[in-house]
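Sequence only, no structure available. Ideas?
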Amino acid sequence: MSATADHAEERTSPAVRLGFQPEQVVQEIGYDDDVDQELRESIEEVIGSDLVDEDYDDVADAVVLWFRDDDGDLTDALVDATTYIEEGGSILLLTPKTGRTGYVEPSDISEAATTAGLSASKSVRVGKDWSGSRLVTPKAAKSKK
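Reply:
I predicted one. Tokens follow.
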């Protein structure tokens, strides 16, 4: 495949831009009726299966965490999310954009991620109402081969 085709696919598929890959198990936490259905469908299309929910009882390759300001403590949510992923996995933290109900300050995200032992590998635009931060464990960041 040419570099041009790769770049075209990245532009058209938010899930590919976010690093999701075929056959990954992706667990979704914080689902509610306000989530971005187009993003969910894009992820499911790339991984080739449905997202698993909070009741999934095995480790996942990645977690999609929808989080709003009134959902409780973000640090606790991130620490809990790390228990669901295998080593080297990532968490896609999705929060409402500026001006939307449930908006979370970037400084709060940064502080919670650091406290939870995570580091942001990139921030991404994921839809008209949601912003995303891809978070990884320091081990995962260092052990990439």
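The radius of gyration is 15 Å.
Hope that gets you unstuck.
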